[in-house]
Fold this sequence. Notes:
The complex is a heterotetramer, with one copy of chain A, two copies of chain B and one copy of chain D. In chain A, 43% of the residues lie in helices and 18% in strands. Chain A is of the alpha/beta class. Chain D is of the alpha/beta class. Chain D has four domains: 1-97 and 183-261, Rossmann fold; 105-182; 271-351 and 435-517, Rossmann fold, CATH 3.40.50.300; 367-431, no CATH class.
Amino acid sequence: SQGTTTDPTSASSSSADSGTTTEVTADAPAPFDGPVRIAIVQQSGQGDYFQQYLNGTRQQAAALGVELDVYDAQGDNATQASQLDQAIASGVDGIVVRHGYPDTLCPGVNAAIEKGIPVVIYDVEIQTCAPDAVQTQQSDADMAGLVLDQMLKDIGTDQKVGYVNVAGIAPLDRRDVVWRAALDTNGWQQMFYTGSFTNSTATDTAPMVSSALKSNPDVVAIYAPYDEFTKGTLSALEQNPDIASGIKVYGADISAADIELMTAEGSQWVATGATDPNAIGAAVTRTLFLHMAGELPKGATVDFPPILVTQDFLRQNNIKNMDDLRAAEPALNISDVSGADWIPSVTF
Amino acid sequence: MTGQLSETTTLTRIQDWVVKYGFIAVTVGLFVYFAITEPAFATSSSLFSMLKFASVTAILGLGVTFTMVVGGLDLSIGATAGLAVQLAAMTMVFYNLTGPTAVVAVLLGGLVVGLLNALLIVVFRIPDLLATLGMMFVIQGAKLIPVDGQSVSSGMVLRDGSVAPGSFTPDFLKIDRGFIGPVPLPVVIMLALVALSWFVLSRTTWGRLMYAVGANPEAARLAGVRVGFYHGLAYVISALLASVGGLILVSRIGQGDVNAGSSSLLEAVAVALVGTSVLGMGKPNAWGTLLGALLVGIVLTGLTMKGMQYYHQDTAKGLVVIVALLFSFTLSRKKLRYTPAT
Amino acid sequence: MTGQLSETTTLTRIQDWVVKYGFIAVTVGLFVYFAITEPAFATSSSLFSMLKFASVTAILGLGVTFTMVVGGLDLSIGATAGLAVQLAAMTMVFYNLTGPTAVVAVLLGGLVVGLLNALLIVVFRIPDLLATLGMMFVIQGAKLIPVDGQSVSSGMVLRDGSVAPGSFTPDFLKIDRGFIGPVPLPVVIMLALVALSWFVLSRTTWGRLMYAVGANPEAARLAGVRVGFYHGLAYVISALLASVGGLILVSRIGQGDVNAGSSSLLEAVAVALVGTSVLGMGKPNAWGTLLGALLVGIVLTGLTMKGMQYYHQDTAKGLVVIVALLFSFTLSRKKLRYTPAT
Amino acid sequence: MAPDTGDQGAPAVNLTGGPLACELDGITMSFGANEVLKGVTLGLPVGHVTALLGANGAGKSTLIKVLSGVYPEHGGEVRVAGTPVEMESPLAAARHGIQTVHQRIDENIVPGLTVAENLVFEEIVRGEVPTVRSLRKLLPRAREIARTLDLDWSDSVLTRDVFELGIADSQMLLLARALVQRPKVLVLDEPTSTLSAGEVDRLFALIRRLRDDGVAVLYVTHRLSEVAALADDIVVLRDGAISAAQQRPFDMEQAIRSMLGESLATHHDLVEQRGSATAVELRGVQLLKRSDPLDLDLRYGEVTGIVGLIGSGKSELARGVFGADPLRAGTMTLDGKPYAPRHTSQAVGAGVYLVPEDRAAESMLPGWSLTWTSTLPFLRSVASWGLLRRARERATGTAVLEDFGVVATGPGQAVDSLSGGNQQKVVVGRWMHAGPRVLLLDEPFRGVDIGARGDISHRARAQASEGACVVVFSSDVEEIREIADRILVLVEGHIKLDAYTSEVGNDAIVTSMSEVA
Ligand SMILES: Nc1ncnc2c1ncn2[C@@H]1O[C@H](COP(=O)(O)OP(=O)(O)OP(=O)(O)O)[C@@H](O)[C@H]1O
Ligand SMILES: Nc1ncnc2c1ncn2[C@@H]1O[C@H](COP(=O)(O)OP(=O)(O)OP(=O)(O)O)[C@@H](O)[C@H]1O
Ligand SMILES: [Mg+2]
Ligand SMILES: [Mg+2]
């Protein structure tokens, strides 16, 4: 009896953004005719992006009346491997694996598939070693590409630029590839490369960017392809108003907090590449449902396209939060991705 | 009169000098080196931003210092600072209250944490390290419950579907972004707190009694000292200082941040421990803690300006700590006695 | 001259029982509760995966235990485990060497860290906490230098533009993924190391002398114990254990990971500290550390199965630690004496 | 201070002319600028007990630590059986057959290990015990060692944490451990200061037996009666140099003069004072777990001495009145008003002060100066509005230092670097300086030289005559007689005898002390 109206209280006890569900027009196939339990095994749940992602997952699971176990490794890859084992051992009917290292997760994913548990992967490059898992991802290359194209449009070629990133984190590494290519083709000169990925990334990144700025006050733009880095960078700019006033910042990701920062008076964050983590969380869950019901073959691939969000766009449409943004940019919702007539799709 | 008089030869005099001033000399030396090689380093804006950067570490380090004085060690300060971040953001964003109200809420939160620590340690007799370690985990998790693990920011959608009514007030944001004259407010706060801590610790009966409790609690008790009170007091002070650190952090970030604070713990401990060795004191003290924070700030700022990779930060931090300690402990001819107990 | 026997009233007998077995009772009670309410909990595969999960914490906790026995505390274990992860990955991926070579490289790396810690503490007389804290920062940074801060994975592009020639060998991956009969290899390793540590600590003269060095270094010295040797030995053992933990970690991750290990520090310390209170021992011991790790494992697994939010993990962990400590310290009638020094 | 030129002249290296087990030649030692030993030359003859006397801080313990390899960085030479040896470590000393029982018990006991392990500790250290050995297998050896001093400790005591032993039992343990090694040279640094008569007798019997077997014994004590009973020779150390040496028959007067200098304050004969007003009244107080209730009045204007064997409950009584530990049962009044201190601060506030028995653990704050130690209980009086006044503090420190003639470089010296007797003077002095109503002194003469002992007892009596209620707790009848106006004998938490000193003889006291309750 999945309803059709907004029902924030029953959807989840812990939602920030509550969704609307579409109407179902068919009865659910097996195994959804009985009680179903699925698990999400995520590398990290900390931070807004992941919380919203999980929120989407929860609401989509609840919309179909499916029980959801959440395994969160708090950023520890070894723990994630253990938790994947635990999820398999706990006898769930389907598993979403979100982020992590392919080599870490591969054995567990294959073990699950061998035991007959369907697995959907999000953002782990695991095709070669676990070909039977369903692959989903947001396109980091597209995300970086969209923003860097905008940056090129804004500042032109042959400029001095700064870069805030760290190596060793898969999606950031993928964005890094695009950045390096852009440096070459656009003739940009990277004046500094700094960043700190810790438990409080934004706070710890700020002083480093601040110092880097002092020795390189002549950069015209900074690319910080992760919103915690972007926040840290903004905070560093704020501390150096004398040298930093003209610098444009290009970031990644979007959240209510990010919108606030981008639209703030005098904000230097001019563009970001965005997906709606809520929508992606829900879409990945729908993908799992389809796969479990046999409507999506093993080894299938599903991509979630990002959009470009600029400061001008936000200001022109007077966008204050994610709801406003979704209203102005329905493409964020991707509610048609992995939809079916028996799945009440959650849109936000 | 043959014997080996400890002749105060030139050598031992140099040694004593190094123990006493070596640490300061290294700090000054590094400062001068960076100032000469990186012209941007010694500009006043660069210096103030470095001081601003060091302020949170220094303030949390002061909290650690107080608990080290009573022979303990507060491992919950990082989490307490994080709690402060959360509380401030919630007060202003969720409940749309004023900046001063947020400050009061944060300090009350700190007080509660401090009292809980004191309860566990003094009344329930759980050793300091263990009690505060447990509290650290509890706070880290508990602070996320009311916000469902999300960072609080204005305009966010609440559980009941409504949009959060408030936002960070300009006066609150002044805590980090304000100035007194040319000096950033957090730097003023840091210096004031260091001076106050120094004053309390070395010029008042409270401070003396706290040192007594740390030096030998049984002897202090038999001298009529209310050991439990002073022991607990140190944890309350520590939690309050951590809350002040958290206030600066949250005003710097300008929104809630679920992760703020936690990375400060080990750094604050390092700074306070390094501080024990400044001026050959051999006991935890406020100025030493400040100097430790400054040294770390100088090294990180300087090396970042010199374009080092981000992962050299940790190496540099560690080496600085170790070199500072070599001066104080290895060269020292008197036995330094500070031992933080359980 | 036998001193007076304490009266054993029913109440004090219950109290003593609680102090001695309360911790174990809580562990067993929680286990039974989860087994009944969550049918999937008590399946053998679920239990083995829980044990596997606890193994790294337990092994690092053993390292902490050794250093606590000599009156110190090794804060560098997390970083050392991370170094092991890096070394193993580099040996196999960069240099295309065999799994056994990687194991040797990792253990050598651990040995070097242990000896450096021992050098700083014993020869340079830097207090344990400070020396290992400094080392922690140094290792954390230094291990990233040869890999430019990147996580090592097969097929990655090296500095000179070539592709890394090697990959993790199947025999190496067996460290975490292998079995002996139905029992996962890391669980076997954990149990073996716990048993060995227990044996060394409480059945050999080495262990006894380490306890002596921790309890009263001056007395040990006056009795002719080579205090420095045993003090240093504990740090070498600790670093080696951390390396073994790192081996399991890296074989579990299946590639290099720049962040591996660092989050284990506080957990390992918590587990070892909690272990001191098991069976009313009042001193660091190997079985207690194992039990501590198991309790944390049970709580986290059980609560996850019950569908709690991730941030409740920390709260649960903290509460478990505190409750365990309440049993041991608050109720205990004998004064527990363990105080890890600087 | 004028250098002592006692009529013995340059100290003899060898008093007996017999073979020497061990010789110290021109030993020097200093701590920082403090030159503690200034060329000590001394021989220990085989089969002799040499008593080493000296005031607090004379350097006795330091000399012993040189001999036992604790301070390898000394000057001068140590010879064993005529051959020069390097005493580079305690282990080296043990290898040369030198066994030492050091003065500070807490520096020699290893808490966390069992009683048995502590007994066998030296053998564990030397690797004489197989590496792998369970506690059970150590027990027979531990029992054997305990039997050297007739300690019939049951297995349950032997497997207990040594921390649970009292201070006296710990001392016996250390003695047994050293004696069982059959050393060639046995060095004992104030071994009896925590023991009572029975144990001392047993120890002495054993020392005599060892001496007759040819062991050279160096014995440090402040109790002259022990010297008379045990020693063959006396050597006096003064300001880091040997100032006198004697053979039997001893001239004790002379020895004391060489210890303390000619300017020895003449011994005051005790003028008995009798108090009248009751200060503290105890009713139905139960001291030990199974003792009967006790009623007791402690009066102003007199010194009450409470004497009893180890474990008779003296410390329990003192700590109970001070509020350091709660009383098991019973009530107290102070000046007729109900008095139930739940915390020591209430006692201090009421003018009830305690000098606890275990100086190192209960009075010393590591690294604290004489001034800070003196003012700790009375910080409010040297502060205004919580602000410490340094001048006032220093004045208090200096007053304590001068009143008692503490040997120190100044009020800024760390108390724990003073010798034991001077530490005790500081601790007693800080309370007396504040003018106590009730002053409880638990074993105040432990490790204190005769000069200081005279000072402390003189000052305590002066306090009483000014109207204070002074109570001294000791297990030594001689000591108590020297200081107390009124003597109480405590046996198993019960008062067996209560009389004025002049009315009761030594024998009566000793008899009642050993009575069974
Ligand atoms: N570790 C040390 N550091 C500095 N000074 C010391 C140390 N040990 C002893 N001293 C000083 O050396 C002198 C001699 O001390 P020692 O303990 O040898 O005296 P003692 O003759 O044994 O006295 P007592 O009868 O009180 O035991 C004292 O002045 C003391 O302050
Ligand atoms: N640390 C301890 N643990 C267990 N029992 C103790 C301890 N200290 C003292 N006792 C016991 O308490 C009782 C009273 O001891 P108390 O110290 O009051 O005796 P005392 O007459 O002062 O003897 P002492 O000369 O040893 O100080 C004795 O039976 C003693 O064995
Ligand atoms: Mg002495
Ligand atoms: Mg006593």
